[in-house]
Amino acid sequence: MGLKFSYTLLAPIYDSIVGSPTQEMRSEGLKRIVTATPQHVLINGIGTGLDLPFLPENHRYTATDLTPAMLAKCKVRLSQHNLNMQLHTADVMRLPFEDNSFDIVLMNLILAVVPQPIQALKEASRVLKPGGKIYIMDKFIRPGQFAPTRRLLNFFIRHIATRTDVVFEHLLESCPELILINDKPALMNGWFRYLDLEKVEN
Length: 202
Ligand SMILES: C[S@@+](CC[C@H](N)C(=O)[O-])C[C@H]1O[C@@H](n2cnc3c(N)ncnc32)[C@H](O)[C@@H]1O
Description:
The protein is of the alpha/beta class. It has one domain (3-199): Vaccinia Virus protein VP39 (Rossmann fold, 3-Layer(aba) Sandwich), CATH 3.40.50. It is built from 5 helices and 7 strands; from the N terminus they run H-E-E-H-E-E-H-E-H-H-E-E. The chain has helices spanning 3-29, 68-78, 117-127, 148-157, 168-173, and strands spanning 40-43, 60-65, 84-89, 102-108, 128-139, 178-187, 192-199. The protein has a 7-stranded mixed β-sheet with strand order 3-2-1-4-5-7-6. Strand 2 (60-65), helix 2 and strand 3 (84-89) form a beta-alpha-beta unit. Helix 1 (3-29) runs parallel beside helix 2 (68-78). The longest helix is centred in the first third of the chain and has 27 residues, at 3-29. It is globular and about 45 Å long. The mean pLDDT is 95. Residues 3, 7, 18, 45-47, 50, 64-67, 70, 91-93, 108-110, 113-114, 162 line the site of S-adenosylmethionine (SAM).
């Protein structure tokens, strides 16, 4: 079973499972994109749009997701908010955008979901302008961490919901143009983290 199929099944119940446990972490994390100057923000894997209530209204947003059923929920939520946002059905591992297009790329609960997170980070970096920022909120294990339960869990759920074996530092090694500027625990003793990256100027 692929992620698109499983998220199609999950779409009607996603908010009731994920909404409340992630609300505080989400609202806190999205303070990172508050700036007086309007920015063009790419939101990768927006899902049903649980981020929408916490997004500043002064930016322009482009948002993607692989699963039309998730985007359909997001579209309904978007109609209740005053946001300049375009929704696209797209794969974050092959983004349909030009190089150097966005000021900010937001990746909440997507980088550790997709089967090829290195490719997803490379794509985010490709479409980001030099000097731009990538803001991540997701679950990662640490380099060398044994984490047997999460590695075992990964075996069962990687094709239906998310990976639980991704080591963020290994992803970053593949993108030397990205500099880690912030790394803070977000939830569950630092299993979930806020990670801020900056793309070096040419
Ligand atoms: C765990 S949900 C997170 C949704 C949202 N970011 C949030 O914070 O609630 C993962 C989302 O990633 C989407 N997804 C899975 N694989 C994808 C891919 N290759 N490209 C884009 N979206 C993908 C799913 O459809 C789902 O909406």
